[in-house]
Design brief:
Elements (H helix, E strand, L loop, with lengths): L1 H15 L37 E6 L4 H4 L15 H7 L4 H6 L18 E8 L2 E6 L5 E5 L19 E6 L3 E3 L2 E2 L7 E6 L4 E4 L3 E3 L4 E10 L5 E10 L8 E9 L19
Parallel strand pairs: 4-5
Antiparallel strand pairs: 1-2, 1-13, 2-3, 3-4, 5-8, 6-7, 8-11, 9-10, 11-12, 12-13
Length: 270
Amino acid sequence: MIHRAMRTGWIYLAALALLVGFVAPRDTHAQARGGRDGGPPATARATAPKNFTGYWVAVVTEHWHLRMQMPPKGDFSMLPVNAEARRVAGTWDPAQDQASGNACRAYGAAAIMRIPGRLHITWADDNTLKIDTDSGTQTRLLHFSAAPAPASATTTQADWQGYSTAAWAGAAVGRGARTPGPAGNLSVTTTRMRPGYLRKNGVPYSENTVLQEYLDTFAEPNGDSWLVVTSIITDPQYLTGPYATTNQFKKVPDNASGWDPTPCRADQPR
């Protein structure tokens, strides 16, 4: 039930807090070395410990007034922001963001999982997992291969989602080391994000932000399937410490029912 999803998320937060100081992007190519007898390396899709694909709908169980409604200007509750972040947030003007083509500032990788809506998770190829959102019509690509990240952030629309490297948590990465996180989870590290908002009321995050996520999925005895996304955000420019959240999604059994792609809106909660 939903209480299990919430409990699972908070357990992850407690455990993952210990990892914040040293979690960093890893060479996921080593994880893909699964071939035997000189054969080709095993793909991420072939070695997936769980199935994350399908349609998922967000279930807002906490901070309802900050996620389902437009948060008021100057509301920094539960955010470890510094004085500069407060100053920048004080200049927030949603009408100006909308008019200037920056309506997607709150739909970047560091915040998109908090936006109410639906996810569609599929395999783009055997080593790339794709997450589409109907809110803001964003697309995230999670790269399991060792493809290099872009040299720098640019101002193109795609950069709202930055560059994400992925690995199966608990998997061996060479010389006895293992990818951090609960075994069987999907571990994702995202960098190179275009500066955006942590919250739709203009609370900023910078291009130096690092987003560490752990995704888990499980089924309840009644057949309901849940996806729990634990996120840890660090930003040396605007945050005084890590900002951690958990978000729950329930699998939609009839696939695309309710799927409603909508453009980014700076003046609406979704």
